[in-house]
Amino acid sequence: MKVALYHNDQERSLRIVKELNKELKEQGIVRDDEHPDLVITVGGDGTLLGAFHEYIGYDPDLRFVGLHTGHLGFYTDWLGNEVKELVASLKNDSGQRVSYPLLKLTTTQSDGSTQEYLALNEATIKQPIGTLVSDIYLGNHLFEGFRGDGVAIATPTGSTAYNKANGGAVLHPSLQAIQMSEIASINNRVFRTLGSPLIVPKGQTITVKPKHQSFLITCDQLEILAENVVSVRFEVADEMIHFASYRHLDFWCRVQQAFIADEVRDLEN
């Protein structure tokens, strides 16, 4: 097995990377940041997002495992004091994994050219100054005219982030779906939107056609200044992200730990 290490520059993370390098070498596991079979991230969920975009398109079977330098996150299963246990799990690796859906967004320029992006968490369309005015299509059907700060489209794992703050539902990642939530929409007798989150299954699309020459698109941590973009289409991607499931924490336990309780308890009790 060849392992890549992807980390932030915080002092604690750098110490853990040094310890990881030592343990990997002692266990005969090769570090290869260029052609890995598995990527270990050291940091937080943001670090794992960075690793995802760094290695996107490299190998469809590439797996990730997160080692957190703080508290457990949604994508990180191991803590900083568990380096030996993690490396021991690598020694007994049998390719086990759990897979989560991704979001695909496709921009279309005024000249007909297109550009594709993948998001692990979410994408947004915003008008930094003023109001975003756009038509929103479900499939080829014009569903509504939108006016407001913007819209957010999230994967199931991303549904606990910006989407949740917008009043969206939290979706289990076994569901092959994406969710659109409104960001401060304008609703009155003249302008009206559905006002509720929309959940769209795989095989269906959400297309936003802004009535502006330029606007802002975010794709996870990336910011894209869209100029002469006439439409942005969102759908569940064919690709998925894979996590090594040595001891992958149940999704609802992650939600409970993040938003409800300090400790994960048996959900059946």
Automatic annotation (TrEMBL):
Kindly identify the residues recorded as the active site: 45
- Give the record's GO biological process terms: NAD+ metabolic process; NADP+ biosynthetic process
Q: What class of enzyme is it?
A: transferase
Enumerate the transmembrane spans: none
Enumerate the cofactors the protein uses. Answer: a divalent metal cation
Record GO terms (molecular function): ATP binding; metal ion binding; NAD binding; NAD+ kinase activity
EC number per UniProt:
2.7.1.23
Q: Which InterPro entries match?
A: ATP-NAD_kinase_N, ATP-NAD_kinase_PpnK-typ_C, NAD/diacylglycerol_kinase_sf, NADK
Can you name this protein? NAD kinase
